[in-house]
Design brief:
The chain has 21 helices and 22 strands. By secondary structure, the protein is of the alpha/beta class. It has three domains: 248 residues, no CATH class; 191 residues, Transcription Regulator spoIIAA (2-Layer Sandwich), CATH 3.30.750; 186 residues, Response regulator (Rossmann fold). The chain has a six-stranded parallel β-sheet, sandwiched between helices. The chain has a six-stranded parallel β-sheet with strand order 7-10-11-12-13-14. Strands 17-18-19-20-22 form a five-stranded antiparallel β-sheet. α12 crosses α14. The radius of gyration is 26 Å and the shape is globular.
Length: 700
């Protein structure tokens, strides 16, 4: 029986604010740093005592010499006949010129190669507002539009003429080689352009590198001549030397960085931004920058942990380079690209002290770990040096999940950092992992609880989960399915937990709930946190009072729908109660309807999370805690839903590092062949299709 709950609907209750309020915080505050022409910072006047003051500020904290065991990039500057153009295609960041392209162009130019560089990502971004689209292709929630199969139908018709223009430009320049930076979200336009270059000039050499080439599932296209995996500066010179030699390329050449090699970042040529038009960028007076490469942490879900070995720059070198940008290019906004800007706490503090002593007025931000050693005094130094915001990888509000992730941080430390950052005026962007393999509904509830408890601290940006947790070959999770209870089979083209309580549909529900939650995250600064405009079409809610309640963490039994259909169905239907419980505790009595269907979910979440899943949930609760929930769920499993899933034979430098740290994936008697035979014999027989509706009542 499907009971009906009558709800008196009004429009979704959203936070009201002016544009001025929006621009005061988060991305708007950084965007407000934009300066052009005479507004750019004036160079520092000569002061012969400044260098002494900077040195005295650095000495208590900074190293006096580089780290041990660093490799130098040896460059011989002679005239060469080879020419190269570096390109980055959409979709990627548009706030600043691409640091990686500027660095590689500087290396090639220093070595005597005729060098060009083009940021087609920024150029296309400037044009896209003329495209007849009902979505923003550069929104993080729409990055899947740049991937197959969506790119060719949804975006390439707008991109083809633009790409052809630059194909012709490269042919007119008669370059010997073209180097592309590959990310997961620009692979499709890169493929198209590389093929078109080869079609029109077969002898041109195509070089690819970047994060996408590190992925274990990545397969090079046959028209890629050279693949560079790892730090590119040294390997690029090897590629160019081979091209310069004139030796025939018998087969595709894949150059991989030596596993434990770490380049000396203080002696590599500084990035050359002369190739880029500052007016193409959101912040023309800003650049990306590096304090370090690699990460000191070993979070089990992260590829960057194994992308390259950690090493930091000397703060004296960093301060010198930034002051040169400040004095000679009017740069006063720095976005550090480091995986971890506070990987070396002493060197980061030395940098801050040096900038303060220099008298330069800059603003900067970067990615950081929460760390109890960053106390009020430490954070005040960062703020005084111009730290505007830190992007904290918080990931979860559950102690259990933080432990399983090997985050090395506690909820207490997270809350301490968020409070102290608010005190000194440093804002916090944040990242969150939705659907980690060991995350339960209770853990997800604790994450939302943590956010609610800290909504009035320094948080200004809370992205709503993207596509949920992704199992990658280069992570410790991807190399140890057994430890994290991941099935050796994908379910409808995405990973699933081996007890079937965490599938892509579970993660879609959590991400939708998270998105609705941040839409209604009322705080005392009037910040609008929601980043999914389309989510408003998925639900309606009415709060009956203006109550705003502070809450503590709690354990709660979310097993309210007891259908006993299957672990998949039972757990899926009960996912919804996390947000309902949280709304009641924080906002008092309310009523809500939440909808799921392919027409809503596929445009918002793509096939990565969506499918043939229909549901509605009507829920109402009064001031006494009496609730009534009316619901109907229907799921139809697609044919051929199950496929073998295993990364144990994938190969790359990053995968090798992850594998060494992951521990044994299974007992010695549980061989690859045995796993494969069991999975392919058992899983294809499972059909989780179900339909269930009912009404439940109770009191909270």
């Amino acid at each position: 029986m499907i009971a009906q709950v009558k709800l008196n609907w009004v429009e979704n209750t959203h936070i009201n604010m002016s544009m001025a309020d929006i621009n005061t915080y988060g991305w708007g505050k950084i965007q407000a740093l934009t300066k052009q022409g005479e507004d750019k910072p004036k160079p520092l006047e000569y002061d012969d005592s400044r260098e002494k003051r900077i040195l005295e500020a650095l000495l208590p904290y900074s190293r006096l010499k580089p780290q041990n065991n660093l490799t130098e990039v040896e460059i011989e500057n002679i005239t060469r006949k080879t020419s190269i153009a570096f390109l980055i295609l959409p979709e990627w960041a548009t706030k600043f010129p691409p640091y990686n392209v500027a660095r590689l162009a500087a290396v090639a130019k220093e070595a005597g190669y005729k060098t060009y560089a083009f940021d087609l990502n920024a150029k296309a971004y400037r044009q896209h507002k003329k495209w007849d689209l009902d979505f923003d292709p550069w929104s993080g929630t729409r990055d899947w539009k740049w991937r197959a199969p969506y790119y060719l139908t949804d975006l390439h018709p707008y991109m083809e003429g633009f790409l052809n223009e630059y194909v012709q430009k490269l042919l007119d320049l008669n370059v010997t080689a073209v180097g592309f930076t590959l990310y997961y979200c620009n692979a499709e336009p890169t493929k198209w352009m590389a093929q078109e270059l080869k079609r029109r000039k077969p002898e041109i050499k195509i070089i690819v590198g970047g994060p996408d080439t590190q992925n274990g599932f990545w397969k090079p296209e046959p028209y890629y001549d050279y693949i560079v995996t790892g730090e590119g500066e040294k390997l690029l010179l090897q590629v160019l030397s081979h091209i310069e030699s004139g030796l025939p390329l018998e087969e595709q050449m894949h150059l991989r960085q030596v596993e434990r090699e770490r380049l000396n970042l203080d002696t590599v040529p500084v990035p050359d931004y002369s190739y880029f038009d500052a007016g193409d960028y959101d912040i023309p007076n800003g650049v990306n920058f590096e304090l370090s490469r690699g990460c000191t942490a070993k979070c089990v879900f992260c590829n960057e942990t194994h992308f390259w070995k950690y090493r930091g720059r000397m703060s004296s070198s960093v301060v010198t380079e930034i002051l040169d940008l400040y004095n000679n290019r009017g740069i006063d906004v720095i976005w550090f690209l480091d995986s971890l800007v506070n990987g070396n706490l002493k060197e980061l503090r030395a940098f801050a002290k040096g900038i303060i002593a220099s008298g330069a007025t800059i603003s900067w931000t970067g990615y950081a770990r929460c760390d109890e050693r960053m106390d009020l005094e430490y954070l005040q130094d960062l703020a005084d040096s111009g730290c505007l915001a830190l992007s904290f990888g918080i990931e979860s509000g559950s102690e259990n999940v933080l432990r399983d992730m090997d985050k090395g941080v506690t909820v207490k430390e997270i809350e301490q950092n968020l409070r102290d950052c608010a005190t000194v005026g440093i804002e916090a962007f944040s990242t969150w992992v939705t659907g980690f393999p060991t995350e339960t509904t209770q853990d997800f509830y604790e994450t939302m609880t943590l956010i609610w408890r800290n909504r009035n601290t320094c948080l200004t940006h809370i992205p709503s989960g993207g596509g949920g947790f992704n199992v990658t070959a280069e992570s410790i999770v991807g190399q140890n399915f057994k430890r994290f209870n991941i099935a050796h089979a994908t379910y409808e083209d995405n990973w699933i937990k081996d007890d079937f309580t965490n599938s892509k549909y579970h993660r879609m529900i959590r991400i939708k709930m998270f998105s609705i939650f941040v839409e209604h995250l009322i705080n005392n600064k009037g910040i609008k946190f929601g980043d999914r405009p389309g989510i408003k079409n998925h639900y309606k809610v009415k709060f009956y009072t203006d109550a705003i309640n502070e809450i503590e963490f709690e354990n709660f039994d979310f097993n309210l729908i007891k259908s006993n259909i299957s672990p998949f169905a039972d757990s899926l239907m009960n996912e919804i109660f996390a947000i309902l419980r949280l709304f009641y505790r924080t906002r008092g009595p309310f009523e809500i309807r939440i909808n799921f269907n392919p027409d809503l979910d596929l445009p918002e979440f793509s096939h990565r999370l969506g499918g043939n899943f229909h549901a509605f949930i009507d829920f109402a609760i009064d001031g006494e805690g009496q609730y009534q929930a009316n619901f109907h769920f229907k799921f139809t499993q697609k044919p051929d839903a199950w496929h073998w899933f295993d990364y144990s034979t994938a190969k790359s430098v990053g995968i090798d590092r992850a594998r060494k740290l992951s521990g044994p994936d299974a007992p010695s008697e549980d061989t690859w062949e045995q796993r494969y035979e069991y999975v392919m014999k058992t899983y294809p027989q499972l059909d989780f299709s179900f339909e269930y509706g009912d009404m439940i009542k109770g009191k909270w």
